[in-house]
């Protein structure tokens, strides 16, 4: 038995680089804060990694919002159209439909993308008998935007596998309006464009007025938070003396693009970055999000298999193929009760690794735990830094995204780690957003309408 145990020891030893020490987390927090301040300040904004885009959202829901609103939620390989009827505080009706975005459109022209969205929107309105009405619409667009106002957002760059031509540098609200005008059959008033983090914060704030941070840990990773307008040198346009705060969309996925995270990156991180469609970009996101987590685990598993430490040195074609170890596998493997390997064996069978021993299962699980815990701790470092920066006595963090939602331990890992690094006199809470970015978009539109009328 000594030989097998020795493999376990070697694997654990080599996985040490995936484990963040408290000292490293403190350093990450310090660097993140420095980068956030760079993004907020006019002089340093152009070279800042964490852009801290101003959202121009200054009013949180107060529960008095009423009426029918449309929301459009584009943030990944599919998008949703929602119709939301807000009746009174905490009472609303919602219908929604998911539409796929084919790969050809994700990599095609911007015109094709927005025509596709407008067509789905019109079909949805027909289906739900609001085709004749003129409704306010909130547009959740979950890509890095430079906002010039509540209804004007310039795409800074594509992420998450999109690369539509003719959109970067353009106002996406205008592109959507143009596409709707080309059809000429539906009437829509676009009241707000926002990011999914803003939507999550708004959606949670509707139920919980303490919500000050919106966090996404899904295909991508990002956070927004409430900042004092006085600290926002990039705020453009008239400032309302009665409105002291504004939501900031940090776009923190880009943290580390200038080398700030190199001290904790591993060979697996570098390989993922090298083969991604945006090398050198979104470095922190590649260490956290669902788009990459499974692949990080796969690269470590492959390395140990080739070194003869896993599966007796015998891998499989599927295991050795890029992108074939899905992030959901990480969640499934970690859902097994300690000492049992039911889900783990299912996953390994799917990968053609039926010959795995119990030791192999235990080691694969350990690798997955290292990768997912590191992700949770990186996110926690960021959230703790934001909570300390805002320095309010009690803060609720609204969270959405598939990794946070489905990983069995992510919430608990975050709660413990944030507690460790938040000032002792501050209390905080993590709240799972019920359908955040969709309802949030409608709420931003509703609040904008509440203000306008």
Automatic annotation (TrEMBL):
Keyword Transferase appears in the UniProt entry: yes
Enzyme class: transferase
Domain Hexokinase C-terminal: 212-447
Alphabetical list of InterPro entries matching this protein: ATPase_NBD (IPR043129), Hexokinase (IPR001312), Hexokinase_BS (IPR019807), Hexokinase_C (IPR022673), Hexokinase_N (IPR022672)
Pathway(s) served: Carbohydrate metabolism; hexose metabolism; Carbohydrate degradation; glycolysis; D-glyceraldehyde 3-phosphate and glycerone phosphate from D-glucose: step 1/4
Catalysed transformations (reactions): D-glucose + ATP = D-glucose 6-phosphate + ADP + H(+); a D-hexose + ATP = a D-hexose 6-phosphate + ADP + H(+); D-fructose + ATP = D-fructose 6-phosphate + ADP + H(+)
Hexokinase N-terminal domain residues: 11-206
Family: Belongs to the hexokinase family.
Keywords carried by this UniProt record: ATP-binding, Glycolysis, Kinase, Nucleotide-binding, Transferase
EC annotation from Swiss-Prot or TrEMBL: 2.7.1.-
Protein name, entry field: Phosphotransferase
């Amino acid at each position: 038995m000594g030989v097998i145990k020795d493999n376990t020891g070697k694997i654990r030893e080599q996985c040490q680089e995936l484990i963040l020490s408290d000292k490293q987390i403190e350093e990450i927090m310090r660097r993140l804060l420095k980068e956030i301040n760079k993004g907020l300040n006019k002089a340093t904004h152009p070279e800042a990694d964490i852009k801290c885009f101003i959202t121009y959202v200054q009013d949180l829901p107060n529960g008095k919002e009423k009426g029918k609103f449309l929301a459009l939620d584009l943030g990944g390989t599919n998008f949703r159209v929602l119709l939301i009827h807000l009746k009174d505080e905490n009472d609303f009706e919602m219908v929604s439909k998911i539409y796929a975005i084919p790969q050809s459109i994700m990599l095609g022209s911007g015109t094709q993308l927005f025509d596709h969205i407008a067509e789905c929107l019109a079909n949805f309105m027909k289906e739900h008998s609001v085709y004749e009405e003129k409704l306010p619409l909130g547009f959740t667009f979950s890509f890095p935007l430079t906002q010039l106002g509540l209804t004007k957002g310039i795409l800074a760059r594509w992420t998450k596998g999109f690369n539509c031509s003719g959109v970067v540098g353009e106002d996406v609200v205008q592109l959507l309006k143009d596409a709707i005008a080309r059809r000429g059959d539906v009437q829509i008033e676009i009241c707000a464009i926002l990011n999914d983090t803003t939507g999550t914060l708004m959606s949670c704030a509707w139920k919980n007025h303490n919500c000050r941070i919106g966090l996404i840990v899904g295909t991508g990773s990002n956070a927004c938070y409430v900042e004092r307008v006085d600290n926002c040198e990039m705020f453009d346009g008239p400032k309302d003396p009665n409105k002291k705060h504004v939501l900031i969309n940090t776009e923190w996925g880009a943290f580390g693009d200038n080398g700030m995270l190199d001290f904790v990156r591993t060979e697996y991180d570098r390989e993922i970055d090298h083969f991604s469609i945006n090398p050198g970009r979104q470095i922190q996101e590649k260490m956290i999000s669902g788009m990459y987590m499974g692949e990080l685990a796969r690269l470590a598993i492959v390395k140990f298999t080739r070194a003869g430490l896993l599966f007796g040195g015998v891998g499989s074609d599927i295991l050795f193929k890029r992108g074939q170890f899905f992030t959901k596998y990480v969640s499934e493997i970690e859902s097994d009760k300690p000492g049992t390997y039911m889900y783990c064996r299912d996953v390994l069978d799917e990968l053609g690794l039926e010959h795995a021993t119990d030791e192999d299962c235990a080691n694969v699980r350990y690798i997955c735990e290292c990768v997912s815990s590191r992700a949770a701790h990186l996110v926690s470092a960021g959230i703790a830094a934001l909570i300390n920066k805002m320095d309010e006595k009690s803060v609720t963090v609204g969270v959405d995204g598939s990794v946070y939602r489905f990983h069995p331990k992510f919430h608990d890992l975050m709660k413990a780690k944030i507690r460790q690094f938040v000032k002792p006199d501050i209390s905080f809470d993590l709240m799972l957003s019920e359908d955040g970015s969709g309802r949030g978009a409608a709420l931003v539109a509703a609040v904008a309408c509440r203000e306008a009328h």
